[in-house]
Write a structure and sequence with these properties.
Largest sheet: 7 strands, mixed
CATH architecture of the largest domain: 3-Layer(bba) Sandwich
Radius of gyration: 21 Å
CATH class of the largest domain: Alpha Beta
Shape: elongated
Number of helices: 7
Order of helices and strands: EHEHEEEEEEHEHEHEEEEEEHEH
CATH superfamily of the largest domain: FAD/NAD(P)-binding domain
Distance between the termini: 14 Å
Strand content: 25-35%
Number of domains: 2
Structural class: alpha/beta
């Protein structure tokens, strides 16, 4: 029987684990990918204490710190979470674990573009991780779909490989942070196309072109070799639903300032919760708060 099981091993989960270890709680962290989506980030420049660090480096530092304490870290896929009386049962494919409390830090999944050919060309020209797959597009023409700061960062990274990068966004102007917008403006490799959606993907063995709902330079078809989708994320809320945890209208877990949910013994942190601004540093802070709340709950029990 664990005092707390943390589901999700991204930065919020690792921070929660570190503090749970400090509180001398018997702690198990289960995550399909240690580090979560941050390991897909090329450069982190907004985490206090580090002017510039790669996502993987930051994850490794958090992991190393957490493992300084007596916690267990398991790389595995959770299949289900159920409440049985006053305890929780967490099941993976091969094992079942019991806990007095749960912290959900499962994060989010990449949103899909939603065009019929997307699945057909997945990993054959359609990608969701610029850091993972950008290298394969040296001197190629690339399209980044999206207008957020994350999309801007992807475009900047891909401009190091490709000979041309189009940023295609349905809104009137991209929403990059000023520093990244300035960087885009300084390169002649990135071209921004706004008020436009991708309606079709063309190709045979790989992507050859995309079709647009708004003509660009008089044409609705744009030749590209690769597409990187960066249009946001959907919450990974399966386990919250299983436990009857209250969600907001977008499917994110509702928490209070202490990381508590509406279900006794269930806490949450990171990108899965309903905070408006999702950053590594805010996720870490939420993980710490959730850990302290779990500690108080277990002590009270």
């Amino acid at each position: 029987m664990y005092d707390v099981i943390i589901i999700g091993a991204g930065v919020a989960g690792l921070a929660a684990a570190m503090y749970s270890g400090r509180f001398e709680m018997k702690t198990l962290v289960i995550g399909e990918t240690i580090g979560g989506t941050l390991i897909l980030t090329d450069s982190v420049e907004n985490y206090p204490g580090f002017k510039k660090i790669s996502g993987m480096e930051l994850v490794n530092k958090l992991k190393e710190h957490a493992l300084d304490y007596n916690i267990e870290l398991r790389e595995d896929k959770v299949k289900s979470v159920k409440k049985s009386g006053s305890k929780f049962i967490v099941s993976t494919k091969e094992k079942k674990f019991e806990a007095k409390s749960i912290i959900i830090s499962t994060g989010t999944e990449f949103k899909k573009l939603g065009v019929p050919e997307e699945e057909e060309f997945k990993n054959k020209g359609v990608h969701y991780c610029a850091l993972c797959d950008g290298y394969f597009y040296k001197e190629k023409i690339i399209a980044v779909i999206g207008g957020s700061d994350s999309a801007a960062k992807d475009a900047l990274l891909l401009s190091k490989y490709g000979k041309k990068v189009y940023m295609i966004y349905r809104g009137e102007e991209i929403r990059a942070e000023p520093i990244n917008y300035e960087r885009i403006m300084k390169t002649n490799k990135i071209e921004i196309i706004t008020k436009t959606n991708v309606t079709k993907i063309n190709g045979d063995k790989s992507v050859k072109s995309i079709e647009l709902d708004n003509p660009y330079k008089g044409k609705k078809e744009l030749n590209v070799d690769g597409i990187f989708v960066a249009i946001g994320h959907n919450p990974s809320n399966q386990f919250a639903k299983e436990l009857g945890v209250e969600l907001n209208e977008k499917g994110y877990i509702k928490i209070d300032r202490e990381g508590k949910t509406n279900v006794a013994g269930v806490f949450a942190a990171g990108d899965i919760v309903d905070s408006k601004w999702k950053q590594a540093i805010t996720g870490v802070a939420e993980g710490v708060s959730a850990s302290y709340s779990a500690y108080q709950y277990v002590q009270g029990k």
